[in-house]
Fold:
Amino acid sequence: MPQWDSGNKRIWSAASSSGEEAFSIAMVLAEHSIKQSWEIVGTDISTRILKAAQNAQYPMLRSKDIPQEYLKKYCLKGIDSEEGTFIIEPNLKSKVVFQYANLKKNLIDLGDFDVIFLRNVMIYFDMETKRHVVSMLLRQLKTGDYLMIGHSESLHGVTSEVRSVVPSIYQKT
Ligand SMILES: C[S@@+](CC[C@H](N)C(=O)[O-])C[C@H]1O[C@@H](n2cnc3c(N)ncnc32)[C@H](O)[C@@H]1O
Structure:
């Protein structure tokens, strides 16, 4: 976990798809009893997918990768007509907001973040678009803050404004 000073912490799941990434981050922060207040913003270009994220209801099959203790604390099993699904526990859900954003556009109005997750979306972009998107996102991070990308992705040739911490984790310089 990053060593955080005081103040509200903001984390951005850019290209959040149906919300699994954003809620996983929320579970980890809740589990580590982060002292600062925090919020997570999930954005995606697909309004259909964003609706699913806002519902925060998933087929039970998707729970297989969630650690048991997280399942017990942060997920509620559906009953009756909702059987075979689970929902994210309302208090945790309230810490995560979803909104539309096209990463190729100017995104300054989303505000500044302490950590940005840009995972498994650069595959859709050519090199010029990757450079533009990463440069835009980095404007919303302070020096020393973190950018996370997917395990199979690279920022090689995309930006010189970061240093690699470990594979897929970069720090703004
Ligand atoms: C494979 S999912 C990645 C989900 C999540 N980040 C993860 O790693 O599990 C890719 C997502 O990128 C979104 N996407 C594609 N182009 C985008 C764009 N220009 N702006 C925002 N989101 C985009 C898609 O709608 C899709 O939900």
